[in-house]
Write a structure and sequence with these properties.
heterodimer, A: about 100 residues, alpha+beta, 6 strands, about 15% helix, B: about 675 residues, alpha/beta, 7-stranded mixed β-sheet, two-stranded antiparallel ribbon, elongated
Chain lengths: ~100, ~675
């Protein structure tokens, strides 16, 4: 079993930089990268199976400030409630 | 020796008969599993339930290069952790039934995400073949995938496919046949947990080795423990001696982020697999789906679009369906009824067959055109991908009721008939949300109830008929909303299901899938509702015909008279009460029953009612029949889907209370208003 090197820009979970924001804070067209996930086992399991793991790149498709939002992750469009989006902490990326 | 091959199947074997190969069809939702399943099995499929659950189970038979195969369509899941019944069913099937081949279907346009489930399937040490479906869609998105490179990287066969056109099907069948004979020696390259947790994984494996259940791969069990899988955790806690279990718990407690490490490990593996096999297009392109969604999921435009689309659905249903319904009644049901009455003796048998059986069956049959069209239009919307957007747009209105947008489709089906609405609640994942939606479904005005409205309202309310009809429809929906809100704030607090929903790409409708869906839903209606309606019609007919054939003296009339004290609260006399009770067999029966007890022809019924009853009474009657206990067929469906008599009887009690209260209020308000 060979050792794997972690992807270059992945933050380890115990070092949380100050610019980490919840996914719900992204605006239309902005990009982000998933840093960390917080929350219960079951919600996290579902989010990760859909592609929200540390290192995943996200583009925000729709966010009207209230109600659910739509993001693009791993080529798919996922609709998330605001509370669920709050479980995902990201770094905003400039593309 | 008796031929054990499937009856009617083309058999190519000469002397040695082999049992059919067991094929499992797995995949994430919206990858086109149904399309492949239908292509392979055609009508040789059977729809049932997984034992003890209300999750649909489809099995079928087909032939792969002369080899008989039995295929089971596993529920669509994104992963195989014990978060939902679908995931548990899928993995238990693979672990316990040992299928000869597991066909893992992925959407080629979503390959990166789709391989997540493949990673889980490979960890189960199942014989997997990866089917790359929707290659045409992937091409449109600008993705190029090389199946052979992917197969070499994965270590399992990869079959490209465009299921909607059948391209690649013969290649897939060949590989399935080879795999079923064990003619392939595949060595899949399994995903590993992330490097920083590798030691924990190894230690865990050492702790559980030889204590795992037979047939369960040890690595898989270790991974599931690290993922905090509830079922496996409980299983190992029971199997491991106390000392070992404690060591396991300490290990897990020290690695609380292990689930993320496991998931990340899978995506790392996926990344390696795809590095050589797939090329991405230039990012930044906005596809058709996204453009359409700017309207379809807009908070306001999306709602407008939804209203418009549903207006179209109802318009189509009634414009095409109503004439068909009349034709059926005129050319099939009425002649049968007259023939039965004319040619059967004795009289009671003639009347039983004519007015009971034929009339009851006729009721069911006459609704088939309307329902079939309704299901077809909804089926198109579902297949194209629009219903996911409808659920998204409706979600914020469902929240105060404690529901999610996913409850929207089943409730919509209720506009056609409450039975498929109740059955359709299976797509709702949370148990409480499902039961609540089932509880509220009877309040959706179905075509049968609207049929009663359509007969009575125009003659009674003339100019304001449209307004009154619309108001009656709204009453049921308003009460549904109020009930949901009240229940959510009182009894069902704290029950929260996460809103996470994939919006699949829009695509051209697949007529085969839609056609089969309409067929199955309509057949289910005829079988479930139909049989109950015919029996109930006969019973009601019997109660109305005996003891002496005069409706005024019948048992049914006696019951009606007995209930008159309550009826007076709502302005209903025994005749109207009898009609209400007759509606328990099938809502539209209320009309026929009224005609019988008023000794009138159905054509002149409305006019006659207008002379004998006040508008207030009739209005109350119409309101009550909208909210009353649903027909027996719906009750049977509720009982079946909730698996509980208390919920069913509770539903009855609730609707009784609601209808009596609202009916009385409407009656007295109308009375005082001078109607």
């Amino acid at each position: 079993m060979e050792a794997e090197s972690a992807p270059p820009s992945l933050e380890t979970s115990h070092a949380v930089p100050s610019e980490t924001i919840p996914l719900s804070a992204l605006h239309y067209g902005e990009h982000g990268m998933v840093i960390r996930l917080i929350g219960g086992r079951m919600v996290l399991g579902r989010l990760m199976a859909l592609g929200f793991t540390p290192g995943a790149r996200i583009r925000l498709i729709q966010n009207y400030g209230r109600g659910p939002l739509i993001v693009r992750v791993r080529n798919a469009h996922i609709a998330l409630g605001r509370r669920e989006a709050g479980h995902i902490l990201i770094h905003k990326e400039v593309v | 020796m008796k031929h054990p091959c499937a009856e009617g199947a083309l058999c190519a074997c000469s002397d040695v008969c082999v049992p059919p190969a067991l094929i499992a069809l797995a995949g994430q939702p919206n990858v086109g599993k149904s399309t492949l399943f239908n292509r392979l099995t055609g009508l040789r499929q059977h729809v049932g339930n997984w034992p003890g659950k209300t999750i649909e189970r489809k099995t079928g038979a087909f032939i792969a290069c002369g080899r008989n195969c039995q295929i089971v369509d596993l529920p669509g899941t994104y992963s195989l952790t014990a978060h939902s019944a679908e995931e548990v069913i899928t993995r238990q099937f693979i672990l316990q039934e040992h299928p000869d081949v597991v066909v893992a279907m992925v959407n080629a346009a979503l390959l990166e995400r789709g391989l997540y489930l493949v990673a889980e399937l490979l960890a189960l040490e199942a014989p997997v073949i990866v089917v790359l479906n929707m290659l045409d869609v992937a091409q449109q998105e600008g993705l190029t995938i090389e199946p052979e490179v992917l197969a070499a990287a994965l270590g399992v066969p990869v079959a490209p496919l465009v299921a909607t056109h059948g391209q690649g099907l013969s290649n897939l069948l060949q590989i399935i046949e080879q795999m079923s004979h064990g003619q392939r020696a595949d060595h899949p390259k399994l995903p590993q947990i992330q490097a920083d947790h590798q030691d924990a994984f190894n230690a865990l494996r050492r702790l559980i080795t030889r204590w795992t259940p037979p047939g369960y791969p040890e690595s898989w069990v270790a991974l599931k423990l690290l993922e905090a899988d509830q079922e496996i955790t409980a299983l190992m806690q029971a199997r491991l001696p106390a000392g070992r279990w404690q060591a396991v718990q300490e290990l897990l407690a020290g690695h609380e982020d292990a689930p993320v490490a496991v998931a990340s490990g899978r995506y790392e593996w996926i990344g390696r697999m795809l590095r050589a096999a797939m090329t991405h297009p230039v990012p930044g392109q906005i596809g058709v789906t996204e453009r359409l969604d700017q309207w379809a999921t807009h908070p306001w435009w999306g709602l407008g679009l939804l209203a418009g689309i549903f207006g179209l659905v109802f318009w189509l249903t009634y414009t095409v369906g109503a004439p068909l319904q009349k034709i059926l009644e005129l050319w099939l049901v009425a002649p049968l009824e007259t023939a039965a009455k004319a040619n059967l003796a004795p009289t009671w048998l003639a009347r039983l067959t004519g007015e009971g059986v034929v009339a009851g069956a006729g009721t069911v049959l006459s609704f088939v055109p309307i329902l079939a069209i309704f299901f077809a239009v909804l089926g198109v919307l579902e297949d194209v991908g629009y219903m996911a957007r409808a659920a998204y747009v409706m979600d914020r209105f469902m929240h105060p009721l404690g529901l999610h947008g996913k409850s929207f489709l089943p409730l919509c089906l209720g506009f056609g008939c409450n039975v498929p609405a109740v059955l359709g609640c299976r797509i709702i994942e949370s148990g409480w949300a499902r039961r609540l939606t089932i509880f509220l479904a009877p309040l959706v005005p179905c075509t049968a109830r609207m049929a009663v409205v359509a007969v009575l309202v125009p003659a009674l309310f003339g100019a304001s008929a449209a307004l009154v009809s619309f108001g009656l429809m709204l009453i049921g929906l308003t009460i549904m909303a109020v009930t949901g809100i009240v229940l959510h704030r009182t009894f069902l607090r704290g029950e929260y299901t996460p809103f996470i929903m994939e919006l699949p790409l829009y695509h051209y409708p697949n007529w085969r899938v839609i056609g089969l869906g309409v067929w199955q839903r309509t057949l289910a209606f005829v079988k479930k509702a139909g049989t109950v309606i015919v029996v109930a019609s006969i019973v009601i007919w019997g109660l109305a015909a005996w003891p002496d054939g005069q409706p005024e003296h019948s048992f049914l009339a006696m019951v009606g008279r007995g209930l008159e004290p309550i009826g007076q609260l709502m302005g209903l006399d025994w005749r109207l009460l009898v009609a209400l009770l007759a509606g328990l067999a099938a809502k539209e029966n209320a009309i026929a029953a009224l005609a019988v007890v008023c000794s009138a022809q159905e054509g002149g019924l409305a006019a006659m009612l207008a002379t004998h009853y006040s508008k207030a009474s009739l209005l109350a009657f119409l309101v009550i029949q909208m909210l009353f206990i649903p027909c027996v067929a719906t009750l049977a469906a509720i009982r079946q889907e909730t698996q509980s008599w208390s919920w069913t009887l509770g539903s009855v009690a609730f609707l009784l209370a609601v209808s009596i209260t609202t009916g009385s209020t409407v009656y007295w308000l109308a009375y005082w208003a001078g109607f």
